[in-house]
Amino acid sequence: MGLAFWRKKDPAKLENMSWNFMVAATDPDKCWGIACLFRDTDMPSNVLTCETSFLMGSVVRDIIRTTVPQEYQSQCIASAESAYYKTYDDQSDEPLPPEMENVYGPKSLGQVARIALAAYGERSDTLFLTSALFVQRLNGDPRMKFEIAPLIEEQATMYRKAFVKAIS
Predict the structure, then answer these.
(1) How far apart are CA 144 and CA 161, in angstroms?
(2) What are the distances in angstroms from CA 124 to CA 29, 58, 119?
(3) d(CA 13, CA 126)
(4) What does the alpha-carbon distance between residue 76 and residue 147 come to, in Å, rounded to a whole number?
């Protein structure tokens, strides 16, 4: 007689995986690779990379919300957000380059990142809504949304599959 024993989810493991997931998804090199596929805008390349990274932070929260068991979601989202904030706060000691300061004003990168993630959160991190805000933040043509959304959705699908595999 074979008995099935179900493993209980380890919240510490899930939180750690969420942290690492956020770090991987917001990696500047990966985000620059995605941003290179967008239509040209008048935004400097470092702003475009940061904005893509901010949007990917929102995508990560959405994936965690839809894949992590309900009882662990808040801890996992908090862990992922902590990784996000730490990444940008660690870079906030240096002043923004002039081209970024022209776009964001006299804020630190950590402040800009917090504002962006909060704005995406107001749209429930739903890509259909956040992609429109993303284009608005880039001062892009509104039609860009229909070009950008499939690219981000493709990345989100890849990340979702990898995250589900990692936590199961």
Answers:
(1) 26
(2) 26, 9, 9
(3) 26
(4) 31
The number of C-alpha atoms within 13 Å of 90 and in the hemisphere containing its C-beta is: 7
CA distance 56 to 88: 14
C-alpha dihedral, 156 to 86 to 167 to 119, nearest 10°: -40
- The identity of residue 84, as a single letter, is Y
Question: What is the per-residue pLDDT across 23-81, written as a single tens digit (0 to 9) for each?
Answer: 999 999 999 999 999 887 889 999 999 999 999 999 999 999 999 999 999 999 999 99
For the record, the structure tokens of 55 come out as: 């949007």
Residue pair 121/63 in contact by the 8 Å Cβ criterion? no
Quickly list DSSP for 65-89.
Answer: HHHS-HHHHHHHHHHHHHHHHHHHH
Q: At what angle do helices 70-90 and 11-25 cross, to 10 degrees?
A: 40
Asked whether 22 and 77 are in contact (CB, 8 A), the reply is no
Where on the phi/psi map is residue 2: left (φ > 0), alpha (ψ -120 to 50), or beta? Answer: beta
pLDDT tens across 79-99, in order? 999 999 999 998 878 889 999
